[in-house]
Amino acid sequence: MQKKKYGIWKTRYAENSRNIFEDWVRQKNGEPVLFSTELGTLEYMHSMEMRTQSVFTEFEVREVS
Predict the structure, then answer these.
(1) Largest Cα–Cα distance in the chain?
(2) Residues 38, 6: contact at Cβ < 8 Å?
(3) What is the rounded distance in angstroms from the CA atom of residue 20 to the CA atom of residue 22?
(4) What is the pLDDT of residues 26-59, one digit of tens each?
(5) Would you state the pLDDT for residue 10?
(6) What is the predicted pLDDT for the residue at 62?
(7) What is residue 53's DSSP assignment?
(8) 5 has which bridge partners?
(9) What does the pLDDT read at residue 13?
């Protein structure tokens, strides 16, 4: 049985809405930031939202397969 992993999907919109960037939140080495529990992921995402505070950036917790 494979253990579930959770990551944070980040979507950044440009003001003109033609440039949309979507990708996993990543560490400095390029690897996605993954968590073993959904709760841990939600807590980390909340801290990121508090630091970012941008109407043009959205974060979403997703299960990584």
Answers:
(1) 45
(2) yes
(3) 7
(4) 999 999 999 999 999 999 999 888 888 788 889 9
(5) 92
(6) 94
(7) -
(8) 64
(9) 86
pTM: 0.78
Mapped onto helix, strand or coil, the DSSP state of residue 39 is helix
Q: How far apart are CA 57 and CA 35, in angstroms?
A: 21
CA distances from 39 to 4, 18, 27, 34 (A): 12, 33, 19, 12
State how far the Cα of 33 lies from the Cα of 53, in Å rounded to an integer: 20
Distance CA 58, CA 39 (A): 18
Please answer whether residues 11 and 22 qualify as being in contact, where contact means their C-beta atoms are separated by less than 8 angstroms: yes
Residues 6+ apart with CB under 8 A from 19: 13
Lowest mean pLDDT of 9-13, 14-18, 26-30, 55-59, name the range.
14-18
In angstroms, the CA 59 to CA 42 distance is 10
